[in-house]
Amino acid sequence: MFNRRRVVQGGLATVGSLTVSAPFPARAQGKPPVKIRYSEVVRSMLYAPAYVAITNGYFKDAGLDVSLTTAQGGDKAIAALLSNSADIALIGPESAIYAQNSESPTKTPIFCGLTSTDGFMLMSREKIGKFEWSMLKGKDILGFRPGSTPILFLEAAMRQNGIDPLKDVKLNNNIAIPARVGSWLAGQNQFAIFIEPDASQLELDGKAHFLASIGETVGPADYTTFMATDKYIKENPAVIQAWTDAIYKAQQWTASQSPTQVATAIAPFFQGVDPKALVAAAERYRKLNIWKSTPKIEPKAMEKFQDILVQGNVLDNAKRVKFETLVLTEFANKAK
Predict the structure, then answer these.
(1) At 34, phi and psi to the nearest 5?
(2) What was the pLDDT predicted at 25?
(3) Which of 144, 231, 248, 298 is a plausible cystine mate for 335, CB 3.0–4.6 Å?
(4) Domain 123-218 has CATH 3.40.190.10
(5) pTM attached to this predicted model
(6) What is the pLDDT of residue 30?
């Protein structure tokens, strides 16, 4: 088996940054704002509540001065935490699991949930009247980085529908994240998975057609989570609580607003994307219940996530990580 399981130690690749500075509410007591180096795995509308926490000033209200970078991969985001290039990262839970099972003395517990399941859409090059999963057999599919949550969830969805992802299809998983849309537009592969707003933008441009939601097919299994090193959490519990409170407030706002309002709030993070695509993407994620409305993570959802890792041959069943080791629940439980 190829080495999916090793935590990659690498540099942080960024595609842009955003800094949000704010007065700390406790400045009356002489406390300055707390600077947070925040790394998101990729740029996507899947993480809308996190962007809302920035644009609506919820991090600001919590006394956090947040600088955002986009890692372009879970391996790079976890490497940023382990190398102390980031304080908090938004990554798939598999990164925390791999870290727990690695020889590194530094672990990266999860303390806050953001999405309820996979946010990728299965798309086709040609319009299909009635999609059947069996149509994928023998076809080339643009996948994602080996060992990452997008490819593992796609494989799980295929297995649920009678397709062996290792034998029945050709998964092309070697295209760099920033090059995926360009690869598709160049005519490579008959099928692909795309996250929002790429999926809606491609639909709007007539370059791809929606077939199925991977997350809806697989079901609830916390897909992207906030984590930090055990050392950082131990030394900064008030910061972790403030972060979780801000995310909770953003989740509640996102759940209560219209897709148009959500799209408008996060538009600064998606310059160049058609506003119609942003609204369509927000409508789709709302309909599919992709965004969590609370930062709490349930043991059952995390157990299912590890089931997917085991089925995908990236985690030995004997090396499952106990929920209480993997997830620190106290911050989400106290969120207000």
Answers:
(1) -95, 125
(2) 40
(3) 248
(4) yes
(5) 0.87
(6) 54
* Distance in angstroms (rounded) separating the CA atoms of residues 119 and 248: 19
Locate 290 and state its tokens: 């992709």
CA dist list (Å): 252 to 102, 223, 256, 262, 335 = 36, 18, 6, 12, 12
Q: What is the CA radius of gyration of the chain?
A: 19
How crowded is residue 130: how many other Cβ atoms within 10 Å of its Cβ? 5
Contacts of 28 (CB under 8 A, 6+ apart): none
pLDDT < 50 regions, the chain: 1-29
For domain 17-117+221-334, give the CATH number.
Answer: 3.40.190.10
The domain limits of the chain are 17-117+221-334, 123-218
- Compute the distance between CA of residue 151 and CA of residue 162 in angstroms, rounded to an integer: 17
DSSP secondary structure letters along 86-111: -SEEEE-HHHHHHHHHSS-S----EE
* Domain 17-117+221-334 matches domain 123-218 at the CATH topology level: yes
Write the pLDDT tens digit of every residue in 200-240: 999 999 999 999 999 999 999 999 999 999 999 999 999 99
CA distance 181 to 183: 5
Give the pLDDT score at 300: 96
Phi, psi of 140 (to 5 degrees): -90, 130
Provide CB contacts within 8 A for 107, sequence distance 6+: 96, 99, 100, 229, 230
Q: What token pair was written down for 22? A: 């704010």
Q: What phi and psi values does residue 191 have, to the nearest 5 degrees?
A: -135, 165
